[in-house]
Structure formats: C-alpha cells, structure tokens
Amino acid sequence: MKKLVLGIESTAHTIGVALVSQTGKTVSQEKTRVLSNELAKYPSSKAGFIPRKLADHHAEHYATLLKQALEKAGVDAREIDAIAFSQGPGIGHSLRVGYMAAKSAAQLLDKPLVPVNHTIAHVEAGKWATGAIDPLTVYVSGGNTQILALEKSGGAYRYRVYGETLDVGIGNFLDNAGRLLELDPPDAVGVMLAAKQYHEKELVDLPYTVKGVDLAFSGLLSAIKRSTADHNALAYAAQENAYAMLVEAAERCLCHTNKKQVMLVGGVAQNPRLQEMFASMCDEHGTTLKAVPTAYAGDNGAMIAVTGVKMLASGTEWKSTEPNQGLRIDGQEFKWND
Ligand code: MG
Q1: How far is the CA of 11 from the centre of ligand 1 (A)?
Q2: How many angstroms is it from 139 CA to the middle of ligand 1?
Q3: What's the mean pLDDT in 78-86?
C-alpha cells in the first residue's frame, strides 16, 4: 500500500516542507521516495538569530513552500495520509510555527499528526540517504554536537548519547567565530573559506577541550576574541582544533561501541576538512565513513517525513504531540533496530 507523508521542519533557521511516498513497511531508497523537499532559510547576519523574527520568517514562507511541494510532487493535499513535524529540540518560537502548520493541516485533512524528534530525523534520514547500517553517528549542526548509537535496553531500542558538547554546538561556535572575525559570510562558511586562504598552516595556540567523550567550545571562542593573530590564521586554527576535538571524542566512542560504520550528519557534516579528518581516523580502525549528502545535511522537511514514515511503519508510539524545545534523543523508545 502506498502512503503519502507531509514533513514539516521548523526547529531553527530553516522552514522546510516535503512530500515523501512510501510503499511497504521498510524504509529504503527504493521504497521511500522524496517527491519534493522545499525550504527557505533565515539569512545569517551579524546579529545572529532573533527568535521572533525567525518565527515571522517561517510563517511568511510556509504557505508558498507547501504549494511548491505539492506542485513538484504532483499531488493533491487530499492525498496526504499523515503529517509529520519537528517536535523538538529547537527554538520555541520557530517550533510553534511548524506545529501550528502541521496541526491545522492534520485537522483540516483529518489525518494523523506525527511528532518527530529532530535529532532522530537527522540520524534516520542519514541512514536512508547513505545506506548506513547501525552506524556510530556524529551529529554536527548549529545547535547540536552529539555522538550517538542505537542500543537495546529491555526489549526496546533507543539512541544513546555517548558524547556531546558541554556548551554550544560546533556549528554555533563556528558561526560565532565567523561573526567575531567579521568574515564573509559572517558564519561557519566564512571560517571555512578563510581557513582555505591560510596557506602557512601554522596553528595559532588555541584551547583544545576534550573531557573524555565530551567537548567544550566556548573557551576557544574567548581565546579567538582575545587573540591579535591574523584572521585567516585564526579561522584555520578554530576549524582544526574544533574538528580534531570531535574526531578524538568520536574515536573513543568508536572503540567503545565497536560499530563498523561512522556516519556524519547535520549541516557541518558537509565540510570537506571535517570529512577528511574523519576518513583518516576511520581508515586506521578499518571502519567505513558515510557522510550525508548535501541535500539532506542541513535541516529539511524530507528528513522529518522519512522519520515519520518509519515511525508509522514500525508502529512506534508517542505520548504527546506538543512541541518540546528541550526534547532529547535518548528519552524515546523505538520499535526499529536497523
Ligand atoms: Mg538540525
């Protein structure tokens, strides 16, 4: 039987609307097709995010994106079987916009509303897109830095957080560094471009904070603020240190969990230098590295729809559909184990 699922993403800077069709009970490249995946991103600026403006941005773009998603998929709204949305974690104001959009669609169409954990969606969409099987997942985005793996506990499956940031997300740190150094653009992309311009490749002395399997980035940012070194050299060192910290923590988790694959997901996963450093670590351990393709790296509606499909197909249950800013990945039980 064919099912059509609408996915709505709105946890942070992106409002995304996607349509995914599913045949059968298992999620795979053949059976789970993304028919459309439309999004609008709040532009990065020196001021960072203002939550109320983010919500305004999402509300302004949602209807147009929905229309585009339906048109590209070539379907009518009445054909939709379920509405999946990002329940959290995220920024309260923007989460509410997605929730309201999803809830009204569900009520209007009289179809189920499926609350999707945004972090789990990054992992599940990564598995769907790369074909990874039971990987150690390194989730690196603006607001998040987590090292995750699926484990069985008392008959149910849940994701366990093996390591994570103790302060800000790695992407957030890089965005702040880009802003502080007034790079163009003033964010993580600016840091990447400036680091490329620095051919001397001499490391400016910056903090390197790994605590077992956890990481901290705020000391790095304070040191960049105080430093008088060349901006390109600082961008290079910021990137090298932050990524090396992450690789070190992930390597420890890999040895502990004995997973055979490492998967990079989230917006920062696209960075070629990060992929290069992870590839050399994986090589040493005889482990395969999978990196989520660009189209599904940043936040998007398709990852929410794909995970919604998986929740429905596996008979996973949920307690509440209320948005939850502080939703964690390790608090939820699942029926799937692939
Ligand atoms: Mg994300």
Answers
A1: 7
A2: 8
A3: 98
